[in-house]
Each structure stands twice: as structure tokens, then as C-alpha cells.
């Protein structure tokens, strides 16, 4: 599932992901250009290698699986339901339902926001850089991003415990 992989590999919001067009993919920078909440113009958001690989696989089957006219520029499309319906851009609601459906199959029902939160949690755990995470998530206020750093009080406790091994006389 390219959509799920993209959220897990970038931390995009659901509306940012469903708003992507084909020309928003930057293969050279391994990024997608998104319209960020509260900002004008598109911003490049880096994505994981796996997410890019999954997007490439999706793009290879996109035209066969979702037959549409060449004017349709939306990256993610929905299958037509019912007679005389056409393939169109995946809606926010349809994306949320799709993610819930597929994550239930794996025994762990999750929302798109849960996937975004998972990305942020792992990013924080691996990098401990609130400003990089803030930029990646598109938060305007660092306080919003700091929520992820507060999740790991144990990490802070462990870091403080490491200080006991320091020979303060050598500093």
C-alpha cells in the first residue's frame, strides 16, 4: 500500500497526501511537494526510501488499475463504485476508511493520524531533533512537536543516569 507507506515514511497529514498530484513527486530529492496547513505555496517534504520505492511500484500499476483520462493528475485515485462513476482523486474520508480497513487486516486498527504519530515517534526516538521533526511534520509551533519528546521520559532518565559515570574532576 503506497498510501500507507507514504504516511509512515514521511509523516504527512491525510489531506496533504490525498492532495498530491503526479507532478508533486521529486524523485531526485526523494521528496513530495505539499501544500502545508497555514502556509502558501508548496513545500518539499522528504520521504523514506521505502516509501519512494512503494510509490514507484504503485505508479507502474496506477494506469491499469485506475483507468482514467490523461487529464487526471491526482496521485492517489479511488476505484469507481456503481455504474457511470468515474475514477477520481481519493478523498480524505475514503483514505481514512482504506487505512482503517487494511490495518484491521493486520490486527491493529489504526487511523491515518496514528500512522503520522508513529512516524513522529520513531523519528524522535532515532534523531532527538525537535526542530528537524517540526520541519518534517509542518508544525508552525515547536510546542506542538515537543509532545513527541515528552513521550520518552524514560530516555531522559537514562541519559541523566549516564551522567553518574562522568569523572567530574576531568571536565
From TrEMBL:
GO terms for molecular function: DNA binding. It comes from Caldibacillus debilis GB1. Residues 1-161 form the Tyr recombinase domain. It holds the Pfam family Phage_integrase. InterPro entries: DNA_brk_join_enz (IPR011010), Integrase-like_cat_sf (IPR013762), Integrase_catalytic (IPR002104), Tyrosine_recombinase_XerCD (IPR050090). Transmembrane segments: none annotated. Gene3D superfamilies: Intergrase catalytic core. It is found in: Cytoplasm. The keyword Acyltransferase does not apply. One of its GO terms (cellular component) is cytoplasm. Keywords: DNA integration, DNA recombination. It comes from the Bacteria. This is Site-specific recombinase XerD. One of its GO terms (biological process) is DNA integration. Its main location: cytoplasm.
Amino acid at each position: 500500500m503506497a498510501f500507507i507507506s507514504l504516511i509512515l515514511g514521511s509523516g504527512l497529514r491525510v489531506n496533504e497526501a490525498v492532495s498530491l498530484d503526479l507532478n508533486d513527486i521529486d524523485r531526485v530529492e526523494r521528496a513530495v511537494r505539499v501544500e502545508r496547513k497555514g502556509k502558501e505555496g508548496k513545500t518539499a517534504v522528504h520521504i523514506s526510501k521505502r516509501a519512494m520505492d512503494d510509490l514507484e511500484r504503485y505508479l507502474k500499476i496506477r494506469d491499469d488499475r485506475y483507468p482514467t483520462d490523461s487529464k487526471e493528475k491526482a496521485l492517489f485515485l479511488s476505484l469507481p463504485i456503481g455504474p457511470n462513476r468515474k475514477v477520481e482523486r481519493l478523498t480524505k474520508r475514503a483514505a481514512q476508511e482504506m487505512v482503517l480497513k487494511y490495518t484491521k487486516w493486520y490486527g491493529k486498527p489504526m487511523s491515518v493520524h496514528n500512522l503520522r504519530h508513529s512516524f513522529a515517534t520513531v523519528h524522535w526516538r532515532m534523531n532527538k531533533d525537535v526542530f528537524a521533526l517540526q520541519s518534517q511534520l509542518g508544525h508552525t509551533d515547536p510546542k506542538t512537536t515537543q509532545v513527541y519528546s515528552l513521550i520518552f521520559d524514560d530516555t531522559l532518565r537514562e541519559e541523566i543516569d549516564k551522567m553518574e559515570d562522568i569523572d567530574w574532576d576531568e571536565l
